[in-house]
């Protein structure tokens, strides 16, 4: 365990390096921070921090920079999450309150996170498997064609066209709509297959084929791969950090194009806690020079998806964590009220 003084020295090195982008020397530390000890003592502390792998000397510079291990300790032990100011909170609320539907909420959230953190923002759409059914609408488009509209508690809307094996009258369609909603409205998506398995048998023999087709389409909608959708924004922000990437920014950009990689980075949707992955903690090699800050969002205290940012390891962790947490909280409120 590091002494409290050496933790203070590490904190000062991280803060200065994030702010100045320059390796930090003992003289600068004693001038900028009230450490209460001499430059010689600070040099000894820096040597100890370097021996333990928390800081490193780049090239032949006299200064030191934090390592992934140093940032990890900073985040775990030192970094209080920076609260948003009242004007910042109002700006977040006003920006998100204007959203007209779920797609708009996600798009606005991506833009807002990218602007607040000046990094790459990633927002996962609410997962269908963690949602509940608000309503199922069935609309007749032709004698043997129906539109199925599935509306979730998070405001997500899925539409499917159903080609029926035989004409289906308005009265039968209304009956199916009523019976279906009485079974599934307010229920978790994972419960729906069990709830509707015997529903077709409640209809006349000539209608059972069509009812089974509609139910099959509904069940397919619940498990389709497109439920794991992401929106990403602010990629151009990475160009401001060119020198933070050792060789080239290309591996980072390539990784950001891989949706599966990003979903793994964000973590499991059900985990609502704040996650910070630093440098080589990211399993994907192309992102070893980045950090990922993510948190779950949702309504009713349960996370239905994740959002977060990707940036260089030299990031303002307290500020970034504060922004990500605040935005997630407002998005959750919007979903609860939608």
What's the count of strands? 10
Task: Give the spatial strand order of the biggest sheet.
Answer: 7-3-10-9-8
Total count of helical runs of at least 4 residues: 12
- The poorly predicted ranges are none
Q: How would you sum up the global shape?
A: elongated
Series of H and E elements: HHHEEHHHEEEEHHHEHHEEEH
- The chain-level structural class is alpha+beta
> N-to-C terminal Cα separation, in Å?
48 Å
Helix content: 40-55%
Proportion of beta-strand residues: 15-25%
Radius of gyration: 26 Å
Topology:
Blueprint: H1 4-20, H2 26-32, H3 39-51, E1 55-56, E2 65-66, H4 68-78, H5 86-97, H6 102-117, E3 120-124, E4 133-142, E5 145-152, E6 157-163, H7 170-184, H8 192-196, H9 205-223, E7 230-233, H10 250-256, H11 259-266, E8 275-278, E9 290-297, E10 305-312, H12 317-337
Helix pairs in contact: 1-3, 1-4, 2-3, 5-12, 6-12
Write up this protein.
The chain is an alpha+beta fold and 338 residues long. The chain has 12 helices and 10 strands. The protein has helices at residues 4-20, 26-32, 39-51, 68-78, 86-97, 102-117, 170-184, 192-196, 205-223, 250-256, 259-266, 317-337, and strands at residues 55-56, 65-66, 120-124, 133-142, 145-152, 157-163, 230-233, 275-278, 290-297, 305-312. The strands form 3 sheets. Strands 7-3-10-9-8 form a 5-stranded antiparallel beta sheet, with helices on both faces. Strands 4-5-6 form a 3-stranded antiparallel beta sheet. The chain has a two-stranded antiparallel sheet with strand order 1-2. Strand 9 (290-297) and strand 10 (305-312) form a beta hairpin.
């Amino acid at each position: 365990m590091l002494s409290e003084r050496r933790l203070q020295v590490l904190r000062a090195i991280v803060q200065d390096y994030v702010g100045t982008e320059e390796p930090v020397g003992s003289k600068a530390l004693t001038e900028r921070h009230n450490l209460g000890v001499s430059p010689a003592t600070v040099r000894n502390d820096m040597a100890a921090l370097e021996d333990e792998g928390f800081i490193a000397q780049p090239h032949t510079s006299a200064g030191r920079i934090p390592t992934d291990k140093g940032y990890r300790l900073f985040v775990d032990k030192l970094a209080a999450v920076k609260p948003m100011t009242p004007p910042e909170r109002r700006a977040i609320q006003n920006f998100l309150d204007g959203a007209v539907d779920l797609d708009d909420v996600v798009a606005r959230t991506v833009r807002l996170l990218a602007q607040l953190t000046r990094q790459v923002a990633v927002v996962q759409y609410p997962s269908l498997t963690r949602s509940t059914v608000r309503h199922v609408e069935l609309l007749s488009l032709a004698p043997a064609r129906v539109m199925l509209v599935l509306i979730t508690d998070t405001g997500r809307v899925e539409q499917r066209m159903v080609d029926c094996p035989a004409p289906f009258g308005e009265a039968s369609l209304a009956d199916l709509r009523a019976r279906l909603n009485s079974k599934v409205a307010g229920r978790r998506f994972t419960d729906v297959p069990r709830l509707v398995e015997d529903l077709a048998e409640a209809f006349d023999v000539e209608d059972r084929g069509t009812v089974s087709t509609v139910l099959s389409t509904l069940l397919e909608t619940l498990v389709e791969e497109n439920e794991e959708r992401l929106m990403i924004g602010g990629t151009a922000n990475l160009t401001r950090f060119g020198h933070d990437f050792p060789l080239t920014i290309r591996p980072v950009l390539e990784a950001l194009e891989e949706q599966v990689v990003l979903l793994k980075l964000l973590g499991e949707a059900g985990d609502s806690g704040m996650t910070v992955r630093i440098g080589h903690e990211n399993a994907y090699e192309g992102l070893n020079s980045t950090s990922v800050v993510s948190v779950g969002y949702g309504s009713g205290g349960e996370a239905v998806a994740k959002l977060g940012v990707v940036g260089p390891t030299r990031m303002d962790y307290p500020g970034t964590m504060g922004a990500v947490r605040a935005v997630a909280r407002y998005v959750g409120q919007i979903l609860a009220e939608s």
